[in-house]
């Protein structure tokens, strides 16, 4: 299967110009930053509940692997530069230090997760609900794998260890994130159907 991305199709099959690619990347970067502002701190974990993973995966699938990844690299660069694009944190200020803290692994996973969802979308996984759900699940698995590994072994000021990282960085989010990707997986197939008509 090789059907191209939603972005390329919306562009009418023409080669995407540099301004079109830049605008798409900036749009998804801005959506990711906006989703970070919808943040719910949880008392039993240093990882807040946000809508970011859903935006990262949808953006990656819509833009494709390279542009989706680029949007998240740009998001991280803006955050490292100190712009207030990361979720609010009582522990760490905005800026580079956030990548060293408990949520660093989740944040650093975003380019990889967007790439994975985009790569599968480039192979038409975003055209039907079940394959779209699979693409979202693969991307979310990347987010959780990186986030939990970072929390367990690398997070500053003190790594949590694997059992604590699983208990605080994975288990509390599984049900809600499963619902988020179940919802996200409906978006692109619906858009493809509308375009097909």
Features:
197 residues, mainly alpha, Arp2/3 complex 21 kDa subunit ARPC3, two-stranded antiparallel ribbon
Descriptive overview:
The protein has 197 residues and is mostly helical. The chain has one domain: Arp2/3 complex 21 kDa subunit ARPC3. 68% of the residues lie in helices and 2% in strands. The chain contains nine helices and two strands, in the order ααββααααααα. A hairpin with an 8-residue loop joins strand 1 and strand 2. Helix 3 packs across helix 4 (65-80), helix 6 runs antiparallel to helix 7 and helix 7 crosses helix 8 (162-169). The relative contact order is 0.15.
Tally of individual domains: 1
CATH level-two architecture = Orthogonal Bundle
- Predict the CATH topology: Arp2/3 complex 21 kDa subunit ARPC3
Oligomerization status of the protein chains: single chain
Give the N-to-C terminal Cα separation: 21 Å
The secondary structure category is: mainly alpha
Q: Helix and strand string, N-terminal first? A: HHEEHHHHHHH
Count of individual helical segments: 9
Give the radius of gyration.
17 Å
CATH class equals Mainly Alpha
| Spatial strand arrangement across the major sheet | 1-2
Taken as a percent bin, the fraction of beta residues is under 5%
List low-confidence stretches: none
Estimated helix fraction = 55-70%
Overall 3D form: globular
Mean pLDDT: 92
